[in-house]
Each structure stands twice: as C-alpha cells, then as structure tokens.
Design a protein that fits this description.
Blueprint (H helix, E strand, L loop, with lengths): L9 E7 L3 H12 L4 E4 L13 E2 L1 H9 L5 H4 L3 E10 L2 E12 L2 H14 L3 E3 L5 E6 L2 E5 L3 E9 L13 E2 L5 E7 L10 E7 L2 E7 L5 E7 L1 H7 L2 H12 L11 E5 L2 E2 L4 E2 L2 E3 L5 E2 L6 H13 L9 H14 L5 H10 L2 H13 L5 H7 L15
Parallel strand pairs: 1-2, 1-9, 2-6, 4-12, 9-18
Antiparallel strand pairs: 3-5, 4-5, 7-8, 8-9, 10-16, 11-14, 11-15, 12-13, 13-14, 16-19, 17-18
Length: 376
C-alpha cells in the first residue's frame, strides 16, 4: 500500500494524517490529477477510539467523492434502530440509512483507494515542519519532503499547525474498546446508547461480529471509578443495560470538544478533527471528517490566496460546523440526568418525537463538485 517517496519531488499536496479525513482528502485530490503524499505516524490497521458508524450524511459524502460503494464492499452492517437507555428505562428509535463498519477495515480501504488513485503513502513517520518558502513547504518525514500545499488531518492529538486549540472547560474525554465475544443482548443492526451521571456509552456490532464500544466520560467520573473500564460499567449499570465481559485494553482520548483558532493559512488547511470537534452521535464524527474532506478537495486545485482560504472557511461552516448543532443539543440533554430521564420516558411512549433530530443527523451532504469517473 505504501508508495515510494522521492526526496527531491515537489508534491502538489502533502496530507498529514491518514484517518478518514486525511485519506479521503488524499484520494479526492489524487483523482483530480494532483500529486499527493499521505503521511501518518501510525502503521495500519490500527486501533482507534470511534463509534464505527457511518450515517446517511457520511455515506452521501463518500458517494460525492466516488467512494459510495466502499462500505458495502467491506461488509458494513445496515443499522435500523437506536436503543436509548437511562435510569433503567429504554426507548427504541428508528435509524435509517446508516451502517456500522470497523475502523480496522475502513481506514485501510480508504488508504488503499488513495494509493490506487495515485497518492504516495508513508506510514510510521513523525512529521516535522522545517519551514516554508515561495515554492512551498519543507518537511522532515523520515527524509526531506517538499509540498506546495499542506493539509493538516492529524486529529485530536495533532499539533502540526494548531498547537493551542481552544478546549471547552466542560469537554468530556473519549474512550473505547472492542469486545470479541459480546453478550447476546447486543444484537446486530442496532446502536445502543446508555447514559448516566458520569457520561454515556455507545455500542454497536461490527461486520465481523465484534462489539465496538465508544464512550464519553467526565474526567472526574473516571477518577472516581478508577479506570475507563470501571467508568463504562458504572454508566451501563445506571442505565440498566447489560454490562461487558472483562475487557483488558481500553484506549482514551484527549478532551473531545474543542475548536482550532484557525483552519487555513498561507499554503495550508486543517480538516477533520484537527479543524475542531465536539462530542458526536450516531455516525456524525466520521461524517464530519468525510464531508470536510469532500468539501476541501476541490479547493486544492485552486491557486493559493485569501479567496480560496475564505472559501474553505465557508465550506467548513456549511458542511461541518452547522451539522454539529444537533450534537451540542443532545450532549446538553445527556449531561442532565433529569432531562435525560424525561427524554427517555417521552421517547418510550412517543418515539416519533425524535424524528426531526434523526432526520437532521442523517441529512445528506449538499452537492460538492463531482470527481472524474473511476471511484468505487
């Protein structure tokens, strides 16, 4: 999968970070005839804290760049409902047009699509900025690299071009694991979401039968319970959901809700989590990543300048930031045990009341310029 990096080559675009935002940017840029170098400090496949859901918004963004058939090709599981539980009560909501898919499979497939389109890929390297001149950027990425444009898709942990993001004082931390032999109560085709005083836990079956577990916790809750695993068990018990078998390996994230001070500058753009993030629900996290990449790629063919940077800021507001408001409202409800309990009781008797929010979260991506034929 890895391409060969030529030290004296000048790439049109260097993309730092090969998660969905970076890999889709690299793919879409390469299909537009640009020379692309995709870089990541990790080797793939890799474990990633993620809800592993692609909603209709995410799937439409994949289709917009020519990758609409990829989830089905990988065996993605159609999702038909959401089971929401809190305080021992539960409500069942419809979920249409969404799928679950492991990041192990999805990330590797996106990278392969980018390299098949002509991008070079170099995993396992730490990228350092050496400077920028009239010809573009000078990087150290396991060797000298030059690129006219730089795309920062380095995620929540990335500090490439935004070393000091503004983190919300109420931001929760993310956590996740994968259960190889889950309880039968967690059925295929359903998103399970349990909410408690210390956070919430989402669970979904993957294409290979494993159970993906992704959570957002108050840091104080994790400290009080002693570990990420114990924090999850406490929330699931409070919600009245089946607990998990002993899981050895949990991973955590930095605080989730944050914004970057800037998402574009001379010769560079930030996309995906590196451009800002909030607590996501039902596939919105990956939707923001893919939609942002789909919106950015056409601008990479334009001459650098204030106009193209303004265009990216406007596209990011439209296709990403505006889509985050429902998640902010849901997060506010989940933080209040009283409001959450009222919501679950109401939805238990009247699930159709969730329809406007579900439809908003699943609203397809607005049109972006189509790529040349040849997608998956």
């Amino acid at each position: 999968m890895a391409g060969t990096v030529v030290s004296d080559a000048i790439y049109d675009v260097a993309v730092v970070g090969a998660g969905p935002a970076g890999a889709v940017t690299a793919y879409a840029a390469a299909t537009r005839g640009l020379s692309v170098l995709l870089l990541d400090k990790a080797t793939f496949p890799r474990r990633k804290v993620c809800g592993c859901c692609l909603n209709a918004h995410a799937l439409s963004a994949l289709a917009a760049v020519g990758l609409g058939g990829l989830p089905a090709k990988l065996g993605a599981v159609p999702l038909t409902r959401i089971e929401l539980a809190a305080n021992g009560r539960a409500a069942t909501l419809p979920q249409v047009g969404s799928v679950s898919l492991s990041r192990d499979a999805f990330d590797v497939a996106l990278i392969r699509a980018a390299t098949d389109a002509g991008a070079n890929f170099r995993p396992g390297v730490t990228v350092k900025l050496l400077g920028r001149d009239a010809g573009g950027w000078h990087l150290d990425a396991g060797g000298p690299v030059r690129a006219r444009r730089l795309v920062d898709a380095s995620g929540l942990n990335g500090r490439l071009l935004n070393p000091d993001p503004v983190v919300s004082p109420t931001a929760r931390i993310g956590a996740g694991t994968v259960v190889d032999h889950p309880a039968a109560e967690y059925a295929r085709g359903t998103i399970y979401l349990g909410a408690g005083r210390g956070g919430y836990v989402g669970l979904v079956r993957l294409e290979d039968g494993r159970l993906d577990v992704a959570a957002a916790f108050d840091a104080a809750h994790v400290r009080a319970t002693g570990s990420l695993a114990a924090a999850a068990e406490a929330v699931l018990r409070e919600a009245g959901m089946p607990t998990l078998p002993g899981v050895a390996e949990w991973k955590g994230t930095p605080p989730l809700t944050r914004r970057s001070r800037e998402i574009a500058g001379p010769g560079w753009f930030a996309v995906g989590d590196a451009a800002g993030y909030i607590e996501p629900f039902t596939g919105e996290g990956m939707a923001w990543a893919v939609a942002g990449a789909a919106s950015l790629a056409p601008l990479l063919t334009e001459a650098d300048g204030d106009a193209v940077r303004a265009a990216w800021r406007a596209a990011h507001r439209k296709h990403v930031v505006a889509r985050q408001y429902p998640c902010r409202a849901i997060a506010a409800v989940l933080r209040s045990p009283r409001l959450c309990g009222i919501a679950v009781r109401a939805l238990h008797y009247w699930p159709a009341a969730a329809g406007p929010v579900v439809r908003q979260l699943n609203r397809p991506l607005a049109a972006v310029p189509a790529v040349a034929p040849g997608g998956i």
